[in-house]
Amino acid sequence: MPRSVAGPEIERLIQLLARVPGLGPRSARRAALHLIKKREQLMAPLAGAFGEVLGKVSTCRVCGNLDVRDPCSVCIDETRDETLLVVVADVSDLWALERAGALNAKYHVLGGTLSPLDGIGPDELNLKTLVARVHGGTVKEVLLALGATVDGQTTAHYVTELLRDCGVKVTRLAHGVPVGGELDYLDEGTLAAAIRARTSF
Amino acid sequence: MPRSVAGPEIERLIQLLARVPGLGPRSARRAALHLIKKREQLMAPLAGAFGEVLGKVSTCRVCGNLDVRDPCSVCIDETRDETLLVVVADVSDLWALERAGALNAKYHVLGGTLSPLDGIGPDELNLKTLVARVHGGTVKEVLLALGATVDGQTTAHYVTELLRDCGVKVTRLAHGVPVGGELDYLDEGTLAAAIRARTSF
């Protein structure tokens, strides 16, 4: 246990910052000192941003996204194509797809993937609302944007079965060579999938 | 400009987090999502810690340290040896020395090093209070814990001159091989200093 370098208030700030992903014990000290030095320019606005989010953020009742409004900013965005519903495991996946900028669709966040070993069964996921949304009639295509992991693929199969009688097209993301990826670093499964799904040049 | 992945409140949180040292644009998103998910366990306590520090932290009038009390926690700590005064450039250096745990002394934070090119002269540093403290009569030794850089050494020489007639012992940190360091990665200057300052085994 190293001795405290400052009063208990600053020590507590350092300890809390060390729990933020991306910051370790050492970088938390650097971050704390920077925040203290830039308290007007950075700490005060950050405290304000926390205040905006704290107590206001909630899980969207329609899609499971996290936002300060419910329904969330994505659900109330009327410029999005309502006929395409993208199913993701987590809010972080929704954010990643939005960053890619290749979609202008609505989302549905399952809140995880099926994982019997971790005790996550269908009842733990946001599936009832998904079926209800798809039954609503507006959706024409459900894109299962789930990870290419065992849990992700198990979940994809389960959702496909669940939506079998809904009369919607169910699609999944393509497998293939990552953009910028070098062939000899890729695993055999990815290469085989890329060969099978080859397209004309 | 990527499109926003969430409402403006969460986007603003991400943008502010990206300005924290140690977090980049991508890790700021991960940090923001983690903070939102753990809003009760992490964001609320962090907001509280900000509140404890904001508006209360100030520069210690005695030593130049940053703390929520003035004089600071280090200056009011009566278990510390008042006869040893450690001069550092920045609060981060004070923190680093405290982590080492090898000192139980008082500190004096200059607030930088002399750097004519950056317009930092003696008047920009916390030197008047240093001379006053040393003239106070309690201090027996002044340890100049300044970086082994050109600016750090220039500052050390300047402070030594400044304290020449004060009747105190002025010392500096030893140069040598870093603990855990391998010889063939070390620069010649460090090796030469380590040889000159060799000690009996």
TrEMBL record, chains A, B:
Q: For this UniProt record, give its keywords in alphabetical order, as a comma-separated list.
A: DNA damage, DNA recombination, DNA repair, Metal-binding, Zinc, Zinc-finger
Name the InterPro entries on file.
DNA_Rcmb_RecR (IPR000093), Rcmb_RecR (IPR023627), Rcmb_RecR_Znf (IPR015967), TOPRIM_dom (IPR006171), TOPRIM_RecR (IPR034137)
Q: Where are the zinc fingers (C4-type)?
A: 60-75
Q: Where is the Toprim domain?
A: 83-178
Where does the signal peptide begin and end? none
Q: Which PROSITE patterns match?
A: RECR (PS01300), TOPRIM (PS50880)
Which family does the record claim for this protein?
Belongs to the RecR family.
- Role: May play a role in DNA repair. It seems to be involved in an RecBC-independent recombinational process of DNA repair. It may act with RecF and RecO.
Q: What is the name of this protein?
A: Recombination protein RecR
